[in-house]
């Protein structure tokens, strides 16, 4: 089993797509210089976050310009790239999608955000991702360097069943490109990550864009890595920055052995199941 050095890049995103793509590529290079072998980018790293922006920024995967740039950067730096998210176009349909590239530059997984964030609070805020986006219908895992990684996007982390299903499929790391806001960030961001890590006894990483005061959507930032014990191993502030940290998969086995909730769950009485084929 090879060891994993994970880089989590909290990139400052704004409205110039080309510049933002080249920024992502430069972080991939920086991660390689620090000997990382997997890097994760934030949610919506090539476009502003907002339903009105998605149609303009959306691309076909894997032939769009962002896909090509990530593929080339993965290959050139011989590193796994978990490509945050970009708005994906398939015909007339749009998705919020995470692409995963292996060190040969091949697309090995693609996750479409499964739970769209729709809220409508009277006289306050209305935000409906489903106005422009369609939801994904599949769980997404891939194998890398002895680990099995499950992917979720932002709001997906609030649905504990999804994390449980990933654990049941053998995942030992969950990665969520995400962008919480200035209300839910301070309250729930760290709590949700520690909860999913603790419930399922695996590593959890959430990667946010850096905070940009001028943006339409102000992200909390605070990119974080949490251990299978539920301990916060590394955490950023709101500024552009990157976590680079070694992950020891033995800790996953250790926790699962010492707190054997998965064998002692009363599956004869209740269960969490995937319903779609
Ligand atoms: C962030 O989202 C929450 C949950 O929907 C909402 O209640 C809150 O008003 C939002 N906060 C900001 C600053 O937009
Ligand atoms: C991360 C990054 O490169 N962000 C840039 C995106 O484009 C805007 C507009 O050109 C720049 O101001 C940001 O620095």
TrEMBL record:
Coiled coil: none annotated. GO terms for biological process: asparagine metabolic process; glutamine metabolic process; oxaloacetate metabolic process. It is an enzyme of class 3 (hydrolase). One of its GO terms (cellular component) is mitochondrion. This is omega-amidase. Its EC number is 3.5.1.3. The gene is LOC105367622. Belongs to the carbon-nitrogen hydrolase superfamily. NIT1/NIT2 family. PROSITE patterns: CN_HYDROLASE. One of its GO terms (molecular function) is omega-amidase activity. Keywords: Hydrolase. It catalyses: 2-oxosuccinamate + H2O = oxaloacetate + NH4(+); 2-oxoglutaramate + H2O = 2-oxoglutarate + NH4(+). InterPro entries: C-N_Hydrolase, C-N_Hydrolase_sf, Nit1/2_C-N_Hydrolase. Residues 4-249 form the CN hydrolase domain. The keyword Hydrolase applies. It holds the Pfam family CN_hydrolase.
């Amino acid at each position: 089993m090879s060891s994993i050095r994970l880089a989590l890049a909290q990139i400052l995103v704004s409205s110039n797509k080309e510049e933002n793509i080249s920024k992502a590529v430069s972080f991939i290079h920086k991660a390689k210089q620090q000997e990382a072998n997997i890097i994760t980018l934030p949610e919506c790293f090539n476009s502003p976050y907002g339903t009105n922006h998605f149609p303009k920024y959306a691309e076909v995967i894997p032939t769009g310009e962002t896909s090509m740039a990530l593929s080339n950067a993965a290959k050139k730096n011989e590193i796994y790239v978990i490509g945050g998210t970009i708005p994906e176009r398939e015909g007339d349909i749009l998705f919020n999608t995470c692409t995963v590239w292996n060190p040969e530059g091949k697309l090995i997984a693609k996750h479409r955000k499964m739970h769209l964030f729709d809220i409508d609070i009277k006289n306050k805020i209305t935000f409906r991702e489903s106005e422009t986006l369609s939801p994904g219908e599949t769980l997404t895992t891939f194998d890398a360097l002895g680990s099995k990684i499950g992917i979720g996007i932002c709001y997906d982390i609030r649905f504990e069943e999804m994390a449980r299903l990933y654990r049941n499929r053998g995942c030992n790391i969950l990665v969520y490109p995400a962008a919480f806001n200035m209300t839910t960030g301070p309250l729930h961001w760290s709590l949700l990550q520690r909860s999913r890590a603790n419930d399922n006894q695996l590593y959890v990483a959430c990667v946010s864009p850096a905070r940009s005061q001028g943006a339409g959507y102000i992200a909390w930032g605070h990119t974080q890595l949490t251990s299978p014990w539920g301990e916060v191993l590394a955490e950023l502030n709101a500024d552009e920055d990157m976590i680079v940290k070694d992950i020891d998969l033995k800790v996953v086995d250790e926790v699962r052995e010492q707190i054997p909730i998965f064998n002692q769950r009363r599956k004869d009485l209740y269960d969490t199941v995937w319903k779609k084929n």
